[in-house]
Structure formats: structure tokens, C-alpha cells
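Morning!

This is the sequence you dropped in the shared folder:
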Amino acid sequence: MPLRVVWDPMLSLFTRQTTGLSFMHGGVGAALATQRGTTLVLRKHVESAAPEDVTGMPDREKVVAALRSIKKSRMPLTRCVALLPSNRVYTQLATLSPLAKKNIAAHMHGIIASTIPEPFQSLHTLEQTLREYPDRIEVAVAAVRRDVLDAYKAACSETGVGISALTTPAAAIAGILPKKHPSFLLLHASAEEVTVSLVHHGWPVDEDVMPTGTSLDALSRSVESMATEYRGKGLVLDTLYVAGGSFEAMPQASSLGIERVFPDFQEGSWLAAACASVVRPSDLAINFVS
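The structure's back. C-alpha cells below.
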């Protein structure tokens, strides 16, 4: 894709703001946004092509070239919250016996090694104990291949791009949502994919990533299937957040109440990057920089 820039003259008021940087399979995007209550406004966005190599890995040289093109557009890149592609990051909710409390790390090593289809040594992992109950301990996990993470970090270092957080689209969106529900489902879209995410105590712990253009019936089945699965694990799920205004029709989810968030945000593919521009890094459950 050619370099495309959309500029809002009001942006001069926000020159010290964080930029949302989106690493996609086919390119790199950057966005500046402002938020007032439930209103999210995209002030400037830029994108430049950076297709992956034949193995599906980030092509560092192309990412470097894309970042340099974006910098030439006068997009500030000294302070960024960067988004990894959703399907690059493995997330899960692990349930441990209370007897595992004294050695959670060892138990999690075994769970991750047996459930994530990558060698454990090749992964950068984050783990967080979410809740402890009399009969179980809930631990959230996020993992990404180190070579993927290192490729993006190296490209940013080479081009002088400052990264305060490396996270996921769902984590960026969840980070600015009202804290009304301990657990909820989140439907959101980008230029490349549509994702149903389960967010539990701020953590995206499961995701179904589907291609753009996925039918409404398929989205509805994904939503209902995920809700049924996690209710069976003891979670209380009664809300589906539909993020942005790009969904003209709502999925059928008879067991869930549907709430639109940022319904006036029409640039649907830029929603996560816009959220990354306004979220506080301390509100991000997943951060592969910290």
C-alpha cells in the first residue's frame, strides 16, 4: 500500500501525545487520537506497506522502511504504544489447584509447554494471577515468539522509534473501556481481521481471530461458543461489547446483552491504534516491554 496520511489541523494541540503504532501482516500504521468520555476521535493516521517475508515472519528491513516513511509524514514516533498482530500472541486462562500456590511458576511452565504450539524456550511469556478462590487459582498468560518480538524491537531501535508498551489490539481497547464488568466478550475489527476476545479482569485471555469479511453467522457462532465454554469454567458472562461503528449489523447473541462502545468511530480498522494512542500504559494488562 502507498503511504497514506490523514491530517487534522486540531492535532497541533496534542503534539506531546502518545502515538498508537500498529504492526500488521502487510504494513505498519500509526494513529493519533483524542478521547472525551465515550467519544474517540481519530486526529491523524498514516500507513505504509511492510509485507512479511515468505516464512510469514516480520521483514525487519521492510518494517524499518515503513517506519522511516511514517516519520517523514511528521507523525511523532518518540513515544508509542505498539500493537502486535492478534494472531501473533498466544493468550489463555489457566486454572490451578490451590496446592500449586507455592510453585505457580513451575506449574505454569508445564501448562504453557503443553498447550502453546511453540518450543517454550522460544517464547517471551507474561503471567498474572488474577484471582484466588478456595477451589482454584486463575492465572492469565500471554506469550509471543521472541524472534517476532525482537524483529519489531530492532526495527524501532534502528529508526529511533520510542516504544513504551508492546501489547495487543484487544488489550489496548479494553484498557480504555469502563470497568463495569469483571468478564466480557469484545468484538473488534482491523483492516486485516475481525476478532472476538474474552477479557477477564482486564486480561484478554482467549481470542478467535477471523479474516475481514467473516459472515455475521460465523461471528455469532464464535461469540456464543466462547460464552458457553467459559461459563462452563465458572465465569459470569453477560455482556458483549461491540467496538467502533464499522459493524452495521449485530451478531446474534441471545445469551448476552450487547453494548456498543465508541459507536461514532467510523474508521473501524483504526480503532485499536486510536485506543493505543490514548490508553495509559499502566492500564494495559499485556505489555511485552515491561
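Headline: Residues 31 and 240 are 26 Å apart (CA to CA).

More detail when I'm at my desk.
O.
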